[in-house]
Amino acid sequence: MRVRRAELSDLDDLVALEDATFDSDRMSRVQYRRHLDSGSASILVASANHRRFLGTAVVFFRKGSRVARLYSLASRPEARGKGVGSALLAAAERTARQRGCTELRLEVRTDNASAIRLYERLGYQRFARIDGYYEDGADAWRYARPLDAATR
Q1: Do the domain assignments include residue 152?
Q2: Predicted confidence (pLDDT) per residue in 5-49, tens digit
Q3: Which of 3, 29, 55, 60 has the greatest number of CB atoms lying within 10 Å of its CB?
């Protein structure tokens, strides 16, 4: 599996995966386009054997902050359970460390058991609940993981 930074030529595939993965809270084509050119975001894509995307991760950075935010992690249904999420998270953590961040935070739906298992297995710690966080009114858990030189 290969994880790399997304390019403008990936825009159609990014939007297609976003639309196929999420029912709400989707990033639009315009948002993806803006983030591809932004210094405050990193969009990563995972693929195997030069095939279509298996998954994507979007990481945001705030000027003056040492905390990065995993905004989105998505994988194709047929790729789930095959290490795509783990590979994207490892790449997101490396990217955050390279930018001087010491922590990666994320939000996840409280009913997304498979994502919660992944995050907890990889050392993320739950520290807050946010009621009504998502467009459809669903609640979120907030997780964080310290990033030190020894982590993955």
Answers
A1: no
A2: 999 999 998 998 888 888 778 888 899 999 998 999 999 999 887
A3: 55
